[in-house]
């Protein structure tokens, strides 16, 4: 029997990038929050300059609970689904914001209106076959104040390209208008970032320094980046990288309105006969508890948000919570992103040190920044080249057809070239499709006997075409920079299992096609808020975390303003 | 980084305790109690490999990274110790497949070159490995080859606290300047590589004796 705990205002499931952001405005408004987190606080000593620890053993990207519920995947409904690698759904206070690369992007205004803009410019035939894409229920202008708020709250280093319509060639000239400049200048300029900016200009592209949620200078009681080169999927030992564990969560704790329960394994969200949620059941150290609350905020990783809803069946919701329209798990998107283009240079690039988001980016071939007539795809990809190369990663380089992959000849090749190569990262605008969704696996279960999430991800045509198109541009960029060899591996048709897994509880105005409304609250369950990547109707050509945080703050604001009607 | 403050409210979380508990050598749990000092000085957990298996593995990885004018061989760099350590504390489930692979490699060498793998000449070892790598033996052997090649790269270029990259020989080979806790603008220049930094940051894998914070510079 579960132990009944004292009621609270809000119970949160997960305390990562999304709920870890929402918790600050909520607690500041005087709302009592109990946050149930499957992981624990991580000590700074866990954040090592150690590639085996971070990248091989993945100590900062997973967690005990994650390893026990790895989703299965298949490429079509006739195939048996099997478990792959553990996804990056980190169990810890701060969640995935601990190990993210801190590329702190706003989505492009086009991302919020992919469907209507495409219809307008290219006609109905241009919408990719089988796509369920719809416009977001909010525009860029509506989310802009929240982007601004987050950039200043957690600290983003960057250079604006469009301040209230005034274009600055030093920043991203394609970005939507922003209220003001970034709170900090970009991370350190280097000979390499200069070289790649110059090369982009030579190739006719616009290049700029990427925005990074890493302190380029001391700010808000946190240190500046030490550029040690173990940022990618690692934690920051000097708190320069803005995880919610060092930004919003400690500030929320100061209000005394936040209680964090570590190592709480949430098993079900409970519902009454009127269809409202009443609280959350969880296990902690073998004991079962029921935490009653006026409002439940579900803010786990995409796979777990969907799984918990589907597991939480009741009289009011026989097919899973908030799933009376059968939309939970639908419109799931694995972000189409990868490093397919590599360049070999005739001199040392010396990219070992620095941070991954100490980068140069080209946006000419993303979004609708170029004419797509006759190209056979919509959207495109941003292209990023970065600092930060770890030694095992460096030695695992492609040999560009110049040497075998082992033996003395390989050794001589690696000696000369491990520090002379790099890859461009192409991140595509990615859409939802009928052939791609999440549900519960019929056979694979976690140790409690609950089914794990099953991913069905069918082949795509639009995104690989966009990626290959942008890949050619990356090839030209590397050549303009002086690369002597470039390899461009064509993008295959899928499945794309990305660390940017979004959708599954899509937000939209139509309750028949969307789980959440434009505020992130369930259409069917008035006192259930859903936060995180699972809300996203499309994926931009950039990293999603800043958008997830902006939406989370917006959901919290909506709850504060409408507390009586939602919690009452 | 003079005074790193822990993110934890209490210095030791349950997570840390569990992580440490899994690293207690099996012997310490099954044998008579040993004084703490003796435990600390005891060698690592017993090897996953018999003497014969270790000999095959060394012969294999030393063809992937042979001793030559570019530097020492894989086994001299501690690759076997790295793999052994990983089997003990990170990937125990892989042990059967690795042992089976070593036996299969030996059998394939005997069948195609007439002798146990480790006893073959360098040329004949390379002929066996090339056949395996190009999938002319079996798909299982190819998978085994790829896995061992990956583990060899890990053992060559890892932080030395994992047993590999002995004397930083791996990092010297690829001219990796070294892990350190603060990197200045001069260390991020092209063409004029920074001066190698060759001091250990850690005494062991995380959970054993992490001492990184004390060694920042």
Shape of chain B: globular
* Strand content range of chain A: 15-25%
Please compute the radius of gyration of chain A using only Cα atoms.
23 Å
What is the second-level CATH architecture of chain A?
3-Layer(bba) Sandwich
Question: If you had to describe this structure to a student in words, what would you say it looks like?
Answer:
The complex is a heterodimer of chains A (568) and B (217). With 568 residues, chain A is of the alpha/beta class. Chain A has one domain: 3-Layer(bba) Sandwich (FAD/NAD(P)-binding domain). Helix content of chain A is 23%, strand content 19%. Chain A has helices spanning 19-28, 51-56, 64-67, 114-122, 140-155, 191-202, 248-253, 302-311, 391-395, 408-417, 462-480, 545-561, 563-567, and strands at residues 3-4, 8-13, 33-36, 72-74, 82-83, 162-163, 166-167, 207-209, 258-261, 265-271, 277-284, 287-298, 333-334, 337-344, 359-362, 381-386, 421-428, 436-445, 451-457, 485-488, 501-502, 528-530. In chain A, the strands form five sheets. In chain A, strands 1, 2, 3, 9, 10, 11, 12 and 22 form an eight-stranded mixed beta sheet that branches. In chain A, helix 1 links the parallel strand 2 (8-13) and strand 3 (33-36). In chain A, helix 5 crosses helix 12 (545-561) and helix 6 crosses helix 11 (462-480). Chain A is globular, with a radius of gyration of 23 Å. Chain B is an all-alpha fold. Helices cover 46% and strands 0% of the residues of chain B. The radius of gyration of chain B is 20 Å and the shape is globular. Chains A and B meet through helix 2, helix 6, helix 9 and helix 10 of A and helix 1, helix 7, helix 8 and helix 9 of B.
